[in-house]
Specification:
Length: 508
């Protein structure tokens, strides 16, 4: 069975999820998942209400800020406990290890900020909320591609582990290898060079690794064959909510599709009713003395002969019904605003958001979305860090980490800022030590190590900022020598003075 045939076979299981996703996109962001067979000339549906689009964009922005905070790494590199115990026996070694790991964390975050990762993540989050499924792929060059639900199929086991993924994309024939292009042209002599051909990429879990194969125009691409370790594949399949036995997830919008549908209907009725009510139409009695033409052609303020009783204004007697519709629509808007966190004032409108605001936002997302944030931290953040570390190590941007000793860890919920949580612990420790007094604290606490850990928890580069023990000893020795010199200076002056006096007496 070819990859194309396998893809078409798995499409049937994906279709119900795709239909529901398109219904959700129609009421929120129709451009996310257009109808099947769409083109650039297809006119998409325009919702009567905009709260669906506002809600998805607002919630996606908050999730992006919590998952990829701009001020601090969202992960931390931890050392194996046994190895850490060995290092802890050496004075200052633990702080040095923490500082080195922190520099790698900053390098990874710089890679994220310098690439299109954040933009792709925002697009992926919108698809997760609307469609419930999305596939993220990071190329070796650093570009990030987002595959929509209508562009890939997936097979999962009952535990939810991905077993097989097939993507479908359109590529230009000129972008293909010469051998493949010649095979396609020989198969179809009418194929034009400007017509895109379908490229299928399949990754399947076999023998403890991911096996990658490609097929274009019905022909395999030998150059694309390869393997990936299980935990370092550049393909990240995401789903928002899972149901046992299903390979695809459900979207967040699907949970509120009833309110969105009702609001759409009510808003349409209110808009059309308001348009009808705003229309001004005069009725003239057929047998009256007032002529309709004379009335229509008369300018403002003109005097014409007629009877006022012959003219009436047509009014739509639906104000009461429209008021009920308006009140119901307002109630639905309030429920949707609460569901999509549009009433929250966690984030300030500022260029830089504080760490406490991000921490609070992470907590709010965790509480309001029922653990969705925790799911994304394990299924999106952790694989993303593993991919970035692998690619950056191959490019010599960061040193290779010992296998099995150092591993990335995502901190979720209130601890979503990673090392920022260590700052709270260190500050709390110092508060508990205050009753002992400054002299006892200075005697018992390694101040240099404490300062280094504080800076590391803040994400700062502490290299050269904190004095080493050798520098402190040298400065102490220099200070003692200067003090000794100052103490001996008066004695030396008196000795020289006495000697000069004796010499003067001898000369006399």
């Amino acid at each position: 069975m070819s990859i194309r045939q396998r893809y078409e076979k798995l499409e049937a299981k994906r279709q119900p999820f795709l239909d529901r996703a398109r219904d959700a996109a129609k009421l929120t962001l129709p451009s996310l998942l257009p109808p099947d067979g769409h083109s650039s000339h297809t006119k998409l549906y325009t919702p009567f209400q905009g709260i669906g689009a506002r809600g998805v964009n607002n919630l996606s922005s908050k999730m992006l800020l919590a998952l990829l905070p701009p001020n601090s790494p969202f992960f931390r590199l931890t050392v194996d406990d046994f190895k850490l115990q060995e290092l802890a026996q050496e004075e200052g070694a633990r702080a040095q290890v923490e500082e080195a790991l922190s520099s790698i964390e900053r390098a990874v975050m710089s890679e994220i900020e310098g690439s299109s990762t954040r933009i792709a993540a925002f697009e992926a989050l919108k698809h997760l909320l609307v469609a419930g499924n999305v596939l993220v792929y990071r190329t070796p060059e650093g570009a990030v591609r987002v595959f929509h639900l209508d562009r890939y199929v997936i097979v999962r086991d009952p535990m939810g582990t991905a077993l097989e993924i097939i993507t479908k994309e359109d590529v230009a024939p000129d972008a293909l290898p010469l051998e493949i292009r010649e095979l396609i042209e020989s198969k179809d002599s009418n194929a034009a060079n400007d017509e895109a051909v379908e490229l299928f990429t399949r990754i399947i879990r076999r023998d403890g690794q991911w096996k990658v194969t490609q097929e274009v125009g019905g022909f395999p691409v030998p150059e694309a064959e390869g393997t990936y370790p299980l935990d370092k594949t550049p393909f990240i399949p995401l789903r928002l909510s899972r149901i046992d036995g299903e390979s695809y997830g459900r979207g967040y919008v699907e949970e509120y599709i009833g309110d969105l549908t009702s609001l759409e209907t009510l808003t349409q009725a209110i808009v059309e009713g308001a348009a009808a009510s705003a229309k001004v139409l005069f009725l003239v009695r057929p047998n009256g003395t007032t002529r309709a033409r004379v009335l229509a052609e008369a300018p403002n303020g003109a005097i014409r002969e007629g009877d006022a009783n012959d003219v009436t204004t047509l009014q739509v007697q639906k104000s009461g019904d429209m008021q009920i519709a308006y009140q119901t629509a307002q109630e639905i808007k309030e429920r949707l605003a609460f569901a999509f966190l549009m009433n929250s004032s966690v984030q300030r409108n500022a260029e830089r958001v504080t760490a406490e605001e991000i921490r609070y936002m992470a907590s709010e997302l965790e509480d309001a979305l029922g653990g969705i944030y925790s799911i994304l931290s394990q299924e999106f953040q952790l694989p993303l860090v593993n991919i970035l570390l692998t690619q950056m190590q191959k490019q010599k941007k960061v040193p290779a980490l010992p296998k099995g000793v150092v591993k990335p860890t995502i901190v979720t919920g209130l601890e979503a800022l990673g090392r920022g949580h260590d700052l709270n612990k260190l500050s709390t420790l110092l508060e508990h030590l205050q009753p002992l007094g400054p002299e006892e604290i200075a005697k018992r606490l390694n101040v240099g190590d404490y300062i280094t850990r504080i800076g590391t928890s803040l994400g700062m580069d502490m290299d050269g900022l904190v004095k080493s023990e050798e520098q402190i000893q040298q400065e102490q020795q220099q200070a003692m020598m200067m003090q000794t010199g100052q103490q001996l200076a008066p004695q030396a002056f008196d000795a020289v003075k006495e000697q000069m006096v004796q010499q003067g007496n001898e000369e006399q």
